[in-house]
Amino acid sequence: MTILDKITQTASNYPDRTAYHTFCPDDLKSGGVGSSLNWKQLDDYSSRLAVYLDRTLTTRKPVVVYGHKNPYMIVCFLACVKSGRAYCPVDISVPSGRLGLIIDEVSPELVLATEELPVHGGNILSLPSVISVIENETETIDKACRVTGDDVFYIIFTSGSTGTPKGVQITCACLDRFLEWASGLGGGFEEGEPCTFLNQAPFSFDLSVMDLYLALYTGGTLWAVDKRVQGDMKLLLKTLWESGAGVWVSTPSFADVCLSDRQFGEKLMPKLKRFLFCGETLTNHTAGRLEAAFPKAEIINTYGPTESTVAVTEVRVTPRINETYNPLPVGKEKKGTWILIVDEEGNELPDGQKGEMVIAGDTVSPGYWKNRKLTEEKFGNREIEGRVYRTYRTGDRGYRRDGLLFYCGRMDLQVKLHGYRIEIEDIESNLMKLPQVRQAAVVPVMKDGKARSLTAYVAVKGTAGEAVWNSFAAAQEIRGLLRQYLPEYMIPKKIVFLDSLPMTANGKADRKALGGNGS
Ligand code: AMP
Description:
- The protein is an alpha/beta fold.
- The strands form six sheets. Strands 2-1-10-9-11-12-13-14-15 form a nine-stranded mixed beta sheet, with helices on both faces. Strands 16, 17, 19, 20 and 21 form a five-stranded antiparallel beta sheet that branches.
- The structure holds adenosine monophosphate.
């Protein structure tokens, strides 16, 4: 059964069950408890909005959906796919300059905005209009309009090394194959017994697909944690307690943030039975602390890039696994996926040898939105067991041991910082856009194998001199200018001004000399 069929089925079987809940600091001020949607509302509202989209839009172009955790975000996503259009989610953490680039790339016929849009122009339907459309619409969308099979379901933009984000297209079939597998993770989920899934990641990151669509696929509830709540430990603990969540989905970094408070444990979240991690290295230390704080919950490490629909491997990190392996494994491939470890020529390597992880399988994206060159570079096809599957060259280094896959770093300059995927060159290109900057190199500061912060080395134009440019104020100015183009997590914590950057023999910035890994 497809995700959209499942949603209709749950809405008809359990109309009053809560499908979505969120809470933000403003709710406290107004004495409210947050905003929710039940399953009937979710299904009805999205169908009515889909009728409007079908009636008013003249093309099948993707629709950009802008906002944060407002319940209508989900209504908009589903309305798009019910009307036969892919959606492209953009979170409020994306600054206006970058949002503009994404909108230019997608060139949507319509932007649905559940928060005030910081850019002008184009055809925009703001939240009050979305609500009014839903209230006044009497018809409901024909099932035949929906996206199916190889139609694109969503496009998620991720950091691109050119300085422009790249849009990963995920089809309906990819999402369905992912959900068939992910809904069986750990002990699986009972349809009659609703489970609450915690959502931490913004909807513009594919990790959120894991919680959002697992909640919808299994007929549960999504409990979304607003970023302002995530930034306030007292409110965060309050919402974690109130959530009654059974499944935790986040990056390990977010679990580390929560573990910094001693209240975070079984007593705070007594129903929590499963942690699903993805997106970055789960360290032995974090797994060990979680085992101690939640002795009854299972910890599952999953691995995968946005390009292969969230995750393609899994392993339950038991205390025995945690004692046996350092680093922890990322596990075994899901059914319908094969990970090949290959050398630079693309030859498969034997177990134990490190090489690039190439994913082949039924959840690999058809490619990047409007970027044939990069798609041809990274994606391909391969026949396995008599069927042709899409392949994706991840740029991740890994190896296989004891039948388990292990991730051991990147082959390029991509890093994960606090769970966010960042191409270092993306920051450098944006630094180079600034009129003051002549040369720029960004280097991650590593600790225990994880990037902890970013340092930018910058040489400025002209003869402004050290006295001016070595100052704190100058670093603040550069950071301020960068914020027009880059989200906060990509802004280097430290900016070091140099007269000129050290160079390698082939004329590139010498990252090793600057303390980086030089690749
Ligand atoms: P994203 O597309 O944001 O999900 O980022 C994908 C990248 O995150 C992968 O290519 C890996 O480099 C990294 N990654 C994902 N899952 C894991 C994991 N379980 N352990 C280590 N790195 C991971």
